[in-house]
Amino acid sequence: MGKHSSRSRGSGDDSRAGAPRPLGRRVPSRTAGKRPLTSNVEEQSYGGPDDGVTLSDARSRRRGSLEAAPARLRIERERRSRRIKRIVALSAGILALVVVVAAGALYAYAKHIESTMQRTVVRKERLNVDLAKAKPQEPYNLLIMGVDKRPKETSYRSDSMMLARIDPKTKQVWMISIPRDMRAQIPGHGYAKINSAYALGKEQLAIDSVEKLTGVPINHFMAIDFSGFEKVVDAMDGVWVKVPVEINDTEADRSKGDKASHIDAGYQRLDGAHALTFVRARHQFADQDFSRMKNQQRFAKAIAEQIATKTSVAKIPRIVSTAAPHISTDMSLMEMMRTAQALKGAGSDNVYTTTLPGTWRTPFIWPDEAGMTKIITKFEAGEPFTPKPKASAEASSTAATSAGVAVVAVKKPSQVTVTVRNGAGIVGCANQAASILKARAFKVTDVGNANQFVYKETLVIYKKDKAAAELVLSMLPPGSKLVESRGMYTFGTTVLVVVGKDWDISRVPVAPIQTQ
Fold it and tell me: Between 20 and 30 A from 9 (CA), which of 48, 167, 426, 443?
């Protein structure tokens, strides 16, 4: 039969004696009486003959309980869980360390500013004067003095005096300028110009003299020298202010070579040196000190406006620390910070300014007692010095445009949102226009280039609110045009300003300062 005849073809078993069974998948028996091959995969064996793992066990590895999983899988999961816990703990530790270090650095920075202030601060106990204590979060009165401190001088006069009332709740500020030549009673020295009080007895005598003149109790005082004033302005990256007339005053300039003695008229940003010239200049004015005080009030409003609209909260500590070595004050760091925050909340609309009235008869300005009484009464009551102008019928009611669409007139710049576009191709003109509007409390939300630099004229474009557009127009150079959009321009704000080739920042209108 041949050499293969010894194998049986019917049984399917290996007839060779002692032949080992192959490892691997167990094949169901096909013999009669045995369990037939089934299509249910869960009943098929999986793996080697000794591990007893089936496909159902594999599924347990994927979605079953941890106890049902093989030992090696449970160990791996436990290791992974420990690693995650270690990573979380390490991350939390690093975060805690960062917070502690940051808090420590902030505390150290605050202590550094405080210690710097301690070297210049004149404390209450060193003054032979009682400063009335203000209640927390209640209005307080602050005497602000600019002192003409020069190198190697031990006695110097106050160059300017302002009595301020600050209300931290309502974010309102009242400022009364006191003429430096006003005749006042200086305790222990008789009648003299009020600016001599500081030279005769420093802060304590200046406080006594102002209280004697006005009858207003003073809660805090602050004296800053010229160098400190310049550095504060520079720390604010300059201050935007409207200069009403051209200034040429070498006596007011403190820079080397009189580099800051000249200031052009118009809306512009003044650095520290030019700002000092602006608030000190008086010799070219016929009324001298009165015009100078008006400029000081303009500048005070400009600072309040800039702090409110441009200066971030993060910059305030830097500004305070810059001023600290040049300030003499009874105020703590936190009190100074609260004052700066009150100015930030006020803006120019809530800063009311005026000047103590009087008549010049050489060598003094003689006080107008009746006029002073009215001003001090309103100051202490927290009322505007002059009534705010009543809203016109157009400004207080619904008006109709030429197209017959009803619009609500806007009362305040802070209610107007503005988009500014450079349509002239003049470098920086859009930013200049935006800065002008921001300084007047408009909300400029978008500044950029127009699609084309083909605009010959500056346009103020509105959709419905013509009154708002007219308000914006009044702040821009003469010749700017008011235009109704009628769907031709795309913008998402109240007003769109497209700066044209006629742009000239020197022609920005200078509105006279209004005491309120």
Answer: 48
